[in-house]
Amino acid sequence: MTKIVMKFGGTSVESTEKITDVANRVKGEKENGHDIVVVVSAMGKATDELSKLAFELADSPSKREMDMLLSSGEQVTMALLSLKLNAIGVEAISLTGAQAGLITDSVHRNAKVMKMDPSKIDGLLAANKVVIVAGFQGISEAGEITTLGRGGSDTTAVAIAASIEAEICDIYTDVDGIYTSDPRYIESARKLEQLEYDEMLELANLGAGVLHPRAVEFAKNYKVPLRVRPSFKDGEGTILKEEVDVENNLVVRGVAFESDIVRLTIEYEIPFNGSLASIFTTLAANHINVDIIVQSIVEGVKPAVSFSIKKESLSEAITVLETHKQALGFTFADFEVGLSKVSIVGSGMVSNPGVAAQMFDRLRKENIPVKMVSTSEIKVSVVVPQQNMIEAANALHDEFELALTHQSV
Amino acid sequence: MTKIVMKFGGTSVESTEKITDVANRVKGEKENGHDIVVVVSAMGKATDELSKLAFELADSPSKREMDMLLSSGEQVTMALLSLKLNAIGVEAISLTGAQAGLITDSVHRNAKVMKMDPSKIDGLLAANKVVIVAGFQGISEAGEITTLGRGGSDTTAVAIAASIEAEICDIYTDVDGIYTSDPRYIESARKLEQLEYDEMLELANLGAGVLHPRAVEFAKNYKVPLRVRPSFKDGEGTILKEEVDVENNLVVRGVAFESDIVRLTIEYEIPFNGSLASIFTTLAANHINVDIIVQSIVEGVKPAVSFSIKKESLSEAITVLETHKQALGFTFADFEVGLSKVSIVGSGMVSNPGVAAQMFDRLRKENIPVKMVSTSEIKVSVVVPQQNMIEAANALHDEFELALTHQSV
Predict the structure, then answer these.
(1) Second label for B316, Cα 20 to 30 Å away, from A110, A259, B358, B372?
(2) pTM of the model
(3) Hey, what CATH topology would domain B2-245 get?
(4) Is A405 annotated among the ligand-binding residues?
(5) pLDDT attached to residue B409
(6) At B206, is the pLDDT very low, low, confident or very high (cuts 50, 70, 90)?
(7) Cα separation of A145 and A103, whole Å?
(8) Quick one: A255-399 is in which CATH superfamily?
(9) What are the chain B neighbours of A61 within 8 Å (beta carbons)?
(10) Across the interface, do A94 and B68 touch by the CB < 8 Å criterion?
């Protein structure tokens, strides 16, 4: 029998009707002859509602007690799904994270998986039961209930899939799969059949929460094939794996974009009595996420460094820089709002040096000014004016022929 | 430090406002210098709402999964209370039944406490923490989550009190304590200061769910002083113990009554080719609860046996009797509806043989016909017409001077 893990998020189990649909879907897979582990999140808005109660009682509720509180949410879903499966003739049993053997460190609200002991689940699968496990939660060595933080249920599913050596870990969502770009804005965006883990990590914001990066990293480390599939319709979704099939090995696989970017620029004298590192260390210490950094040293002009942050961090970044400019030894020069970031992603770039040039050339032809550039082995990002963002994304989607279905990626 | 257990039921924790009130009450007791364990039920109607979801999904939901489902309810309450206590400066920690060490048998939905290991709680009390434990739930030796059935949170509180050798187990409720009779009907009913466990068991229906008989039996077996107290006002409530103080040792301590009683009569020939035992065995096998049984053998009249049941069981009882009358060898004779049961309770009766006579005498003076009689060591019950029930209860309450405050019982 092939072992598979099926993970359903909160919106897929938000009502008894939807839980019934999930039960029927699980029954179908069981009848296909698979050994099945189902991982579930809390129903719909249950976690938010529990959090709301907590914050009515305490401004900064104990993290340990928040884990105790929130972990009750998945317990409800898994019991309901299990009793529905049993009612329709599928032998099922639900397990808390602790019962399933998911051991974490003891960092409440953001615990890391330390160990996943598959013996309990394997024993139940051998007894022909569908095993339903609470996502998001585990237990520390000290016996404390913990939760895994954002995207935790995806991580649970991947950890279980790795431990029982499942053939595939299916993440059911309300989207059809991962697209070449955001179909809400890029009309010709096309669903990908396959994608590499690293590409998924770079494209994370394309899927807008479809899959949490931590789960993707976990899948990558343990080489668990992950599939993103639609919960309530047919469709093969998108498979994530180490390397996509050779015939699909295109250079660029997706175009991502992000609005509300701000560029900050600071100037300094040479010799610089501070250090660039200390500037960014100070920003990080104040939880300001810096994305692209560009340093320019041009003859006859003061040396400067520019970096991009999200607009929501702007006022705090300025405060931090002003507060520390004496100590750090620089002059705060300028900032530019109304920017956006557009990226092309594809693991084939590393062996195709002309890709960045092709990107800049196309943007030049479209008369879109490029304010900053950043490259990695599988990604090239440019910062462009926000009013050009969708135009740039469409142009690049076209330039790298992502819409063509004969390139079945 | 004196150890005390404080138990709060669902209505006492039904909202964040009430949880705040409970937290303040716990804080007060902590400041009085006690070591405190708090046992909580699920919030208000939470258990009912979870059950409703389950029955939307399955006609007869798996008992194991119902336990998994329902046990999430207390987990919410205990976490909320704990984070509130921490927020108001009282170090607190919540524990599931399993974490607290409450081991049960494996009868899901109606588990019995097998063992309560106090080591975890004692360790936390020693570290000066208020320990909050989920009522109603435990864990079997096999690691399965179980629930204790009706009144389960009371039983949890008593089991913990016994294991940590608490000075007292306070059951907080929405009533002031246990009364000599139901104050909604008997105007002169008076709150009792003390009551014996056995009397409480007999008076159970006086308190209408104030305290579950199983918890009272548990307290009796382990000699745990139990106190029923009002949640949201001052008042010493009623203390239950092995023996009440000598100065309070009245003969009769309470008058209980119950409406909607039916009397069934069956006749048989002598020699009886069946047996009376087999009639009642058959009724019990069909879950029909028989209360009072009276057999009459009078010269020249067919022998008969009468017994009382609740009105809601009447149609089923008649069906069962008709179905089995051939096999059991009797004639179904008669039934009488519109009856009620009135009882006097008091542990002093055993050494005061005149009590029953005094009761009958008073009822005769009031012209209230007595249809059936049943006596135990600490109780005398009579079946009277329903229209005389309150009149009878008032008369007996008066007859045994239960309203008199100088008899501070």
Answers:
(1) B372
(2) 0.83
(3) Carbamate kinase (3.40.1160)
(4) no
(5) 41
(6) low
(7) 10
(8) VC0802-like (3.30.2130.10)
(9) 83, 86-87
(10) yes
